[in-house]
Specification:
The chain has 259 residues and is of the alpha+beta class. It has one domain. It has seven helices and ten strands. The strands form two sheets. A seven-stranded mixed beta sheet has the order 2-1-6-7-8-9-10, with helices on both faces. This is DUF932 domain-containing protein. It comes from marine metagenome. InterPro entries: DUF932 (IPR026325).
């Protein structure tokens, strides 16, 4: 973690390195937490002068045609060289879109950390799930849901779960890169759209499970079950005899004898 990373890091609880801003992380304030490290494409220039060795004092700069890198908009740092097919995913997407969806669904108790390392090259968000969360298809739900993104071809847009929040490059490696990914998308095509769709599917599954549990809880209420059963009996075979007025002239045996 560099000085620039530490200045912009947010932690709900103090991390072992005692860096960053510590305190409750407001979701609305956190939306702008990654603005400082937004990137853009930039051509690559080299300095060259025929017959003269490369020097910062001599020669002219020439653009390398068809070559480009990702560079920060607000600071003098550049990252990986990328192709035209590479789709830029700003770190802001993790907090603005994905975290917003998870918060709206009610899965998240708090934002545990928002930060970067390598001067903003890699970003992460750790979200603490509420206790007792159940999601269909998941063998277990750990306490932290981590989202990572890198301005580097080696770090995709990725989501994992872990027992601890990401607070630095080491815990990013342990809790995101070394964990089996829940979702992982390369920066080709529409990685943002695919990740958002995946997160929405996760939330839909959780919400359906909540509704199923509510239904089961209602059915487990004996008074509710008895009432529903009584209504069903009436619908299928009619009201009980004592609830109707008996007319002997309408009785099937009387009608049969008369004929």
């Amino acid at each position: 973690m560099t000085k620039l990373d530490a200045e912009n890091a947010l932690y709900a609880k103090e991390a072992w390195h005692r860096l960053g801003t510590v305190g409750e992380i407001d979701p609305f304030a956190a939306i702008n937490a990654f603005d400082w490290c937004e990137v853009e494409r930039s051509p690559i220039f080299v300095q060259h002068s025929e017959g003269v060795a490369f020097s910062t004092m001599n020669g002219e700069y020439y653009e390398l045609e068809g070559r480009q890198v990702l560079k920060m908009k607000r600071h003098p740092y550049a990252y990986a060289e990328v192709s035209d097919r590479y789709q830029i995913v700003q770190h802001r997407f993790m907090i603005d879109d994905l975290t917003g969806i998870l918060l709206d669904t009610g899965l998240v108790e708090e934002i545990a950390s928002v930060g970067t390392y390598d001067n903003g090259a890699v970003g992460y968000v750790s979200l603490k799930f509420k206790d007792g969360i159940e999601i269909p298809g998941w063998s277990r739900v750990e306490s932290m849901f981590n989202i990572g993104n890198g301005h580097d071809k080696n770090i995709p847009l990725i989501a994992t779960q872990s027992g601890h929040a990401v607070v630095c490059s080491n815990t990013f490696k342990w809790n995101i890169l070394d964990k089996e990914a829940i979702f992982k998308f390369k920066k080709i095509g529409d990685p943002q759209g695919m990740m958002e769709e995946a997160i929405r599917a996760l939330c839909d599954g959780y919400e359906r499970n909540v509704e199923y549990r509510k239904t089961i809880e209602r059915m487990a209420n004996q008074e509710f079950v008895d009432e529903q059963w009584d209504e069903l009996v009436v619908q299928l075979i009619g009201p009980k005899p004592e609830d109707t007025t008996f007319n002997p002239w309408d009785h099937p045996l009387w009608i049969a004898g008369k004929s």
